[in-house]
Amino acid sequence: MSEPRRQTDGLFLIKYGEIALKRRNRGAFVKSLKDSIRAHLPDLPFSVHETFHRVFVGFRPEDKDRIAEALGRTFGVVSFCEALRAPREMPAIEEAAIGLAGRLIETGTRFKAEVRRADKSFPLTSYEIACRIGDTLRARFPGLTVDVHTPDWVLSIEIREHAYLYGPELPGPYGLPVGSSGKGMLLLSGGIDSPVAGWMMAKRGMSLEAVYFHSPPFTSEKAREKVEMLARILSRYAPGIVLHVVNFTPVLARIKEKAKDEEVTLLLRACMMRFATLLAERRGAECLITGESLGQVASQTVESIHFTGMLSDLPVFRPLIGMNKEEIIAVAKKIETFDTSNLPYQDCCVLFSPEHPLIHPEVRRMKRAYDCLVAEALIVDALEKAELVSV
Amino acid sequence: MNRVYLDWAASAPPEQAAIQEAAEVSLQCFGNPSSPHAAGKEAAERLENARARLARLIDASATEIVFTSGGTESNTSLLLSVLDRYRLGGVERRKARVITTAVEHASIHDQALALEALGMTCTVVKPQPNGIVDPQAIADALDAETVLVSVMLVNNETGAIQRIAEISRLIREFSARRGRRIILHTDAVQALGKIPVSVAGLGVDAASFSAHKVGGPRGIGALYVKAGVAPGFLSIGGGQESGRRPGTENVPGACAFAKAAEQRAGKLTDNHACAAALADRLVTGLKEIRASRIFPESRTGRDSEAFSPYIVSAGFPPLTGEIVVRVSDAQGFCIATGSACSTKKKDHTRVLESMGMDHQTALSAIRISIGPSTIETEIDGFLAMLTEQVPPLLSISQGLGESHKARDERAGARG
Predict the structure, then answer these.
(1) A326 — contact with chain B (CB < 8 Å)?
(2) Which pLDDT band holds residue A351 (cuts at 50, 70, 90)?
(3) DSSP output for A244-309
């Protein structure tokens, strides 16, 4: 991939969160940044380089909007802005400042120049540079006035190995760079909740793997394609996400054969937790992530969650546990998974939900019912046959 | 894997001769039939030739045939023609009544309901439990404001044959007393080439046809409108098809349609006898499979007077039709759920439910539709496949469907 370095190329300057400054996170942050941009724009040439406190992304001018979109989704980015790079000489810096001010003047006439001199070998002090720039701009644009307290816009200048000039910043999504907090195994259905749960953990720096429980012929290929689409949308935020698709029909058949009707959903969830735990161990994921929200359905009461959670010895993260449906939907809309989740194809949990499911199951009784299934061999077999889908 | 195609009612495999004729006409008679030069005249000649051939097959005259893009357009354009109040014989548009049945294709049923939104009234007559509409029920719905009656000839989901000739007689009796014409339209898309279709014999004023159901190409169909009955067609354009269907004519399509329909007509009696034997074999075989149901229950497979032998509807409740279709597909058999045309829509159980079936049972429906090249071993293979595949699925899906209400409530409420 060619790294755009020509003078005409655009440059984004990125400010990242405090925690991302920590030494061990910086590599992960830069990698996440690169992956995020590539996840959405695989064929785009761009360059990423970092200096102390700052990451720069160089790009072709025509790719600006798409790069900005990717940066707006990259966890760890606190803010970013388009920057100009100029040689470390006052005439060049002044020329660049005039160019930038010409664009910013549309947003107001009161301005302020803010200078940070990271390289102290530069002959002028920050204050001297700011004064020079202020004078230059007022001379060039007679309507401009300097206002250090309530400026309409701020022209920032950083003197590093080059001089960088930039205007107002766009907000990033904050959070931690994906990959800096380990890896989680997300139980991904086709519903509204689980993609949101995955997104929330990615926001806290988890890289994701997802598992979808397919039950042919009861669930359709369309349902599977829908989940693949959801995983693809999640990859914009959690680059590198992989999806495991497992045929769970044999397990389902065993449950239908051995269990009481009202226990079907709970036992199915339990088998899924067991499966996901085995898969997580195999894939090096350190926790499970589910989209459970307390009391939303019968299998999400505290008793039900107690039981299904027993089937995993890994931490189970349920980031939606205290959220209302409306709040979850708002996030789903924001991250653009909602419309896909709303497609009508059903997953097996929905299809096989009994008419009167247990709402307050007795944990010991359910554990016995689970043991009666003798499902371990089936689950291990399903694990062997699980399919890895790159999204 | 050998594929067995049992979804002829959705679309029939093309007839070689029809496609050849389309190719030949496409390459040689490419002129615009409206053009005054030799190339245009040549194309116009082929078009008129196709029109005459098709007309002959249904006992109509050539001027009574309008080529359209297919069954749906034929249906909707005829229904929308009642919007032209000058053709309603003095009935004001907002009072005009359209009578149809609950077993129609969506392009009639839903279009009729859409007319209601425009101020007209629409009466939907329910069929008897066997899917056949009692002609007297249609007659009972007639009133002074009725301008149009539309009843399909062969139902696309159950194969039920409606008693159109009798309905026509009752309407004519009513009109004679009232002294005003009521247009009778029939959707004959699933009838053409399968049972005798004589517009004169049926006594209809209008009828819809589609080429790809008889081995012709997509995108071409026809609407028969009896001479002297002049619905006000809404589309306005270059005046093609005597102003009834503007747009440059699909000459190759029309020729291929005529060819395909001729091929079917030539062997109609023989084909029908074969289809009847296959339908009998199919229904008998289905009845032997655990939990099977035939829709309607009263169908025997030997009643080809009342049902088109080309279409059989069955199910294995509580297994949904969708699941059976998926399993069949995986085993190399192409079949449909209740109706292939409407599987993307939510109310795809309307026809079966109108016959008194509950929603869950209606959801279980599959449709097996055959054609002239379907053979006994294909039916036997299909039955053997179902016999093997269905019972294990039934035990898993025990209880499936009972929770539909709960599921509906939960739809969208899961993560």
Answers:
(1) no
(2) low
(3) EEEE-HHHHHHHHHHS-GGGHHHHHHHHHHHHHHHHHHHHT--EEE----TTSSGGGSHHHHHHHH
Strand (E) or helix (H) holding B98: strand B97-101
Q: What is the pLDDT of residue B341?
A: 45
Neighbours of A190 (CB within 10 A): 29
Q: Which of B396, B399, B410 sits opposite A350 (nearest CB)?
A: B410
Mean pLDDT of A31-42: 76
Please give the C-alpha separations between residue A301 and each of A34, A266, A292, A356, B412, in angstroms, as whole numbers. Answer: 41, 11, 9, 14, 18
Element (H, E) at B68: strand B65-68
Q: For residue A97, give how far its alpha carbon lies from the nearest alpha carbon of chain B (Å).
A: 51
Vertex A163: Cα angle to A158 and A167 (nearest 5)? 55
Q: A345 at the B interface (CB within 8 A)?
A: no
* Inter-residue contact B319 to B376 (CB < 8 Å): no
Name the residue among B326, B396, B413 with its Cβ closest to that of A297. B413
Cβ-Cβ contacts under 8 Å, B402 against chain A: 355
In sequence order, what E strands does chain A have?
10-16, 46-51, 54-59, 77-86, 110-117, 145-146, 153-159, 163-166, 170-171, 183-187, 207-214, 242-247, 287-289, 316-317, 387-390
Residue A230 in contact with partner chain B when CB distance is under 8 A = no
Secondary structure (DSSP) of B141-205: H--TTEEEEE--SB-TTT-BBP-HHHHHHHHHHHHHHHT---EEEEE-TTTTTTS---HHHHT-S
Integer Cα distance of B155 and B354 in angstroms: 13
Kindly state the tokens that stand for B407. Answer: 């599921």
Q: What is the pTM of this model?
A: 0.81
Tokens 């302020």 belong to A112
Tokens 């940066």, residue?
Answer: A71
Q: Cβ of B110: how many Cβ atoms within 10 Å?
A: 16
Is the pLDDT confidence value at B242 over 90?
no
Exposed, middle or buried by CB within 10 Å (0-12, 13-18, 19+), for A44?
A: middle
Q: In what order do the strands lie in the sheet with B146-150?
A: B65-68, B221-225, B206-210, B183-187, B146-150, B97-101, B121-125
Distance CA A43, CA A58 (A): 15
Is B17 buried (19+), middle (13-18) or exposed (0-12) by CB count in 10 A?
A: middle
Coil, strand or helix at B225:
strand
CA distances from B68 to A121, B29, B134, B224 (A): 82, 19, 31, 10
Structure tokens at B9: 């009612």
Find how far residue A372's CA is from the centre of its chain: 40
Report the pLDDT value the prediction gives residue B89, as an integer from 0 to 100.
Answer: 57
Check if A218 contacts B (Cβ < 8 Å).
Answer: yes
**b/e per residue A247-272 (b: at least 16 CB within 10 A):** bbbbbbbbbbeebebebbbbbbbbbb
**pLDDT over threshold 90, residue B389:** yes
Q: Give the pLDDT of residue A144.
A: 92
Q: Three-state DSSP class for B243?
A: helix
Q: Is B392 exposed, middle or buried (0-12, 13-18, 19+ CB in 10 A)?
A: exposed
Assess contact for A55 and A48: CB atoms under 8 A. Answer: yes
- Furthest-apart CA atoms within chain B: distance in Å: 70
CA A160 centroid distance within chain: 31
Mean pLDDT of chain B, nearest integer: 90
Whole-complex ipTM: 0.71
